[in-house]
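so my prof wants the structure for this chain in the tokens format not the other one, which i didnt know existed until like an hour ago. anyway here's the sequence
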Amino acid sequence: MLHLAHLSDPHLGPMPAAGFGPLLSKRITGYLSWKLNRHNVHQPHVLEALLADIKSAGVHQIAVTGDLVNIALPAEFPRAQKWLEGIGSPADVALVPGNHDAYVPIIWKLGQGLWQPFMSGEAAVPGKPEGTIFPYIRLRRNVALIGVSSAIETFPFQASGALGATQLDLLDQTLKRLRDQGFFRVLLIHHPPLPGQATTRKALKDASQLEEILKTQGAELVLHGHNHRHMHEKLASPYGPVHIFGVPSASAVETEHKPAAAWNMYTIARQSGKWSCTVTIRGFNEKQQSFHELKNFELYP
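here's what i got, hopefully its the right format
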């Protein structure tokens, strides 16, 4: 049995001091958005309560599906590194980046490269170009976590993502191989993976190609963030349904349009040759300033 926690979009605050120079880019739009509104939504005490709730649940592995930072200021990346290290060791925390983590170009070793230990696995990916990070495969008992990156640089007011032909081809092969080997496959991605799950300016550009791969090869779970909402879609494949889950921002208070912070726990087991997976959704109660169970159900009864 494996207990897997999923959280996303912590948007770590408060915003570090930003000089005039770094804001002469797309960053200026995100900076103004933070100052005018987002700093009221993303609250550190909510995120702290979420992490305490995860810790008390005794999970074995944590999946974080991106958007650790806000406008990719150089100071945001080492702070996010310390935050990741505070959650757990790289062996216990699996990360994929989001669009805010690729908000503007930044030297790899000063940006996402600081998080590389959390974006790695033990299993080889045949055919992966040397020196590339994604996709990676992390094996935990009979569960395989597959991390891909949809984080790309975009123009102002755009938050789209893409996997690209190389990742898509490798993912297609990886899902097939892991299925043949009998693993419960969990795909981690920041953007919602199916066409129509996000508006055009926020969508995964190659969602139709990814959907076709999932329809053909199957996957037991796909976990994503980005939309800051509770989401659950089911996609048919020859190997059973592909369950696709999104979660709200891990640091958010409830607003008129978006729910308060939440995280999902997936309890995965194999008995008598069949998979079982129980989903527990836990959300933030602002009055009580704590997390409570919102829903609990079986995916493979």
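also thought this was worth mentioning. Residues 168 and 210 are 7 Å apart (CA to CA).
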